[in-house]
Amino acid sequence: MMGSREKNYEDLIFPFCDEVGKYEKLDKIGQGTFGEVFKARHKKTKKIVALKKVLMDNEKEGFPITALREIKILQQLKHDNVVKLNEICRTKPTVYNRWHSTFYLVFDFCEHDLAGLLSNYNVKFSLGEIKKVMQQLLEGLFYIHSSKILHRDMKAANVLITKTGTLKLADFGLARAFSQRNGQPNRFTNRVVTLWYRPPELLLGERNYGPPIDLWGAGCIMAEMWTRTPIMQGSTEQHQLNLISQLCGSITPEVWPGVENLPLYNTMELSKIHKRKVKERLKPYVRDPHACDLIDKMLTLDASKRIDADSSLNHDFFWVDPLPCDLGKMLSHHTHSMFEFLATPRRGKQQQQQQPTQSQQSQASHSSQQMSSSQSTGQSQQGGSRRSGHRPSASASVASMSSCPERIF
Ligand SMILES: Nc1ncnc2c1ncn2[C@@H]1O[C@H](COP(=O)(O)OP(=O)(O)OP(=O)(O)O)[C@@H](O)[C@H]1O
Ligand SMILES: [Mg+2]
């Protein structure tokens, strides 16, 4: 017999939070640190959406604050190059889930993510198409930064692309609002941004950071458009700093005044011998000199000198022939969705890729593939669960994939 308390739960009405049962789940398309993502179809309207499950596991105190933050930020943002949050849905509280609803964020569905597209050699971007990808990515960043939001997890898997070629910045799970509090330095956590895309200031413990952290990630993603695999795949913070120094030159007060005051400057090993080689090392992949120049400016060590989204959009790269051109035609040849979760690994050696944490307390990390660095530092490599372990068996969309290089430098 159902007690009156339980009966009351069942009768509770959530006027602004529909039941997720109005959607039918089709495929699992993502497994993030903080929950699963499904492709789903509205049973009546047939509209296709993405459902991102809110992970409640460690929540004794109700709805997770991190998910609330993501929702609040997504509700505030409205731009063609930012993913659209349509609604929040919930499961019905029943005796079977001990009266605990599961909540889902419901997004417009995008057919691909950039990591999935780059994993597939059959997907070939022309220079004009790469310009269109980067232009939309920077328009999105310009918009969120103007709205005083930092993304804090720029990486190819968090960049979605619709079948008609519209790019959407996604995954605002680590995003936060920022403002300059009348000259007072901010004290944000520096445990943000996936390691391979993490800028040097965060690796050195900076807590008073801002929009340039996202431009560093944009630079890594831009280079990846040609290399097809992340350009700096460190296995520890120290290793990541080594890789950055080998590409961008030694981190010294000469090129970066004030770096000596950062909390970890004396803790980390910073070799003094490296020359900056961004253009030289990228040239074999990125033959366009304007592209090399823009990547070089995005990968500036000193955040105060790093190019911002607005100046990037004004860079000659976007204004000389070939001009940015629509992705729709190229994508129309690819009828199956491509997501990082479904893709053939882009890297040979699979290890744990360090994910940022949402809070200092939650040390959740998630597994992803990783290639071995050609310039090993001899540091201990972290072991980790292999993503192939939770990759579904070959679906039609991945069966014909030829995977991309394991290492580039
Ligand atoms: N609206 C969407 N349309 C299509 N696919 C999506 C959508 N939102 C997310 N995905 C897919 O699900 C994956 C995980 O989503 P998201 O990045 O938002 O979750 P997360 O748990 O924060 O992930 P992670 O911890 O891996 O960064 C994305 O990389 C993408 O492949
Ligand atoms: Mg993500």
TrEMBL record:
The ranges of region (Disordered) come to 345-409
Domain of life, per UniProt, equals Eukaryota
Give the enzyme's EC designation. Answer: 2.7.11.2
Task: Kindly give the InterPro entries that the UniProt entry links to this protein.
Answer: CDK (IPR050108), Kinase-like_dom_sf (IPR011009), Prot_kinase_dom (IPR000719), Protein_kinase_ATP_BS (IPR017441), Ser/Thr_kinase_AS (IPR008271)
* GO cellular component labels: nucleus
Q: Which residues bind ATP?
A: 52
Q: Which GO terms describe its molecular function?
A: ATP binding; cyclin-dependent protein serine/threonine kinase activity; pyruvate dehydrogenase (acetyl-transferring) kinase activity; RNA polymerase II CTD heptapeptide repeat kinase activity
Annotated Protein kinase domain ranges read 23-318
Q: Which UniProt keywords apply?
A: ATP-binding, Kinase, Nucleotide-binding, Nucleus, Serine/threonine-protein kinase, Transcription, Transcription regulation, Transferase
Sequence ranges of Low complexity compositional bias: 350-403
Location of the protein in the cell: Nucleus
What is stated as this protein's family in its record? Belongs to the protein kinase superfamily. CMGC Ser/Thr protein kinase family. CDC2/CDKX subfamily.
Q: Which PANTHER family match?
A: CELL DIVISION PROTEIN KINASE (PTHR24056), CYCLIN-DEPENDENT KINASE 9 (PTHR24056:SF233)
What is this protein's record name? Answer: p-TEFb-associated cyclin-dependent protein kinase Cdk9
The gene behind this protein is: CDK9_1
